[in-house]
Design brief:
Order of helices and strands: EHEHEHEHEHEHEHEEEEEEEEEHHHE
Number of helices: 10
Strand content: 25-35%
Helix content: 25-40%
Oligomer: single chain
Radius of gyration: 21 Å
Largest sheet: 9 strands, mixed
Length: about 375
């Protein structure tokens, strides 16, 4: 398996991210199969052609069904609006393609479960785009916790906030509808924090959730009467992990001043770890040992000692960025395909996260066991 043909559906923010990742992955990680940027899909056709040239794809189409059935395609990357994920992913799997799909998996649990069943039947491999868990700083946090650096785990706190919907005068978009977007802040951002929580704390056993819509209407982009917002601007939950520890979780898309604030703290009997995605190359570690007069947080700045940082640059402090995390994710998927082993998170893994966010949305203050 010397090369793998890539078919990309969608050319927005995450479409470009996937194109950059698969275009760079072989240069960064020399031990992966070589991806061929084979076919790009978007509408209208002239946009697809222009973006294919810009992104470096050999061909373009405005028909996603033609892409998933194309014999030159081995991996289908789905970066479209949420409502299209399920149909595209299932069709791609039925056509014998591996699927790399952005989160959230789908609008509903039924769709996500159908995607997972299709993956199981197909024998193909899947991955969902939880790229933040690829961060070398985050992976180092997982190793420290696994090695007992902060003792027995006792509590988790996680918050993910942005302000892209904070302004009440921003026009209404498809992201405000359940039909097109599904969940709001929970599906768009909160699922990322829950993927990180599971990585450091283990499975989530139950949730008590509460969701709120801050701006119940938004100005219509066409003028006329304001249009309703159907999903959550803010969601919060009390989490109970399978190990018995409690956790607090909150996400907001109406938090002025926050751009990509994904902050978590893991508290243990001998210290704590703190991470903030807005400072994604740093990790804060406190250990309750030594002279109390000199105790304090240690700032760990990522470098080659924190794999796979060194694959990008041999010098600490030069820093990785958001798109580099997708390169790491693409490398993991390519290796999984080469080895014939499931990647993480597969559709089956990501379904667990879907079940958690939908339980939070449905909770209304009731404890829901998972």
């Amino acid at each position: 398996m010397s090369t793998l043909g890539i078919g990309l559906i969608g050319t927005g923010f995450m479409g470009k991210c996937h194109a950059l990742a698969y275009g760079a992955v072989r240069a960064v990680f020399g031990d992966v199969p070589t991806p061929r940027l084979e076919l790009l899909c978007d509408t209208p056709a002239d946009k697809a052609s222009a973006m294919a040239e810009q992104f470096g794809f050999a061909r373009s189409t405005d028909d996603w069904r033609a892409l998933v059935s194309d014999p030159a395609i081995d991996i289908v990357c789905i970066t479209t609006p949420n409502k299209l994920h399920a149909e595209m992913a299932i069709a791609a799997l039925e056509a014998g393609k591996h699927v790399h799909c952005e989160k959230p998996m789908a609008l509903t649990l039924d769709e996500a479960r159908a995607m997972t069943r299709a993956a199981g039947k197909s024998g193909r491999l899947t991955m969902v785009g939880y790229n933040y868990i690829r961060n070398p700083a985050y992976q180092h946090a997982c190793r420290l916790i696994g090695d007992g650096a902060i003792g027995r785990l006792i509590h988790f706190r996680g918050f993910v906030d942005e302000d892209y919907q904070a302004d009440p005068d921003l026009p209404w978009t498809w992201r405000a509808t359940q039909m097109d977007a599904g969940l709001g802040a929970l599906g768009d951002m909160g699922c990322h924090m829950l993927s990180m929580a599971i990585g450091v704390m283990g499975p989530i056993a139950s949730v008590i959730g509460d969701i709120r819509t801050v701006h119940e209407t938004r100005p219509s982009p066409e003028g006329g009467a304001p249009r309703p917002v159907e999903n959550d601007d803010i969601a919060s939950a009390i989490l109970t992990f399978a190990g018995g520890q409690q956790g607090l979780f909150s996400t907001s898309r109406s938090a002025w001043g926050r751009k990509n604030s994904m902050v978590f703290e893991v508290h243990g009997t001998q210290g704590m770890i703190r991470f903030d995605q807005e400072r994604l190359n740093e990790l804060q570690l406190f250990r309750n040992d030594g002279d109390a007069a000199t105790q304090g947080f240690t700032t760990i700045l990522t470098g080659p000692a924190h794999p796979p940082y060194g694959q990008f640059t041999p010098a600490a402090g030069h820093q990785l960025g958001f798109n580099d995390l997708k390169v790491i994710e693409a490398a993991e998927f390519l290796r999984a395909i080469a080895d014939g082993k499931e990647a993480y998170p597969s559709f089956a893994d990501a379904l667990t996260i879907e079940e958690i966010i939908h339980a939070i949305a449905a909770s209304n203050g009731r404890r829901i066991e998972l």
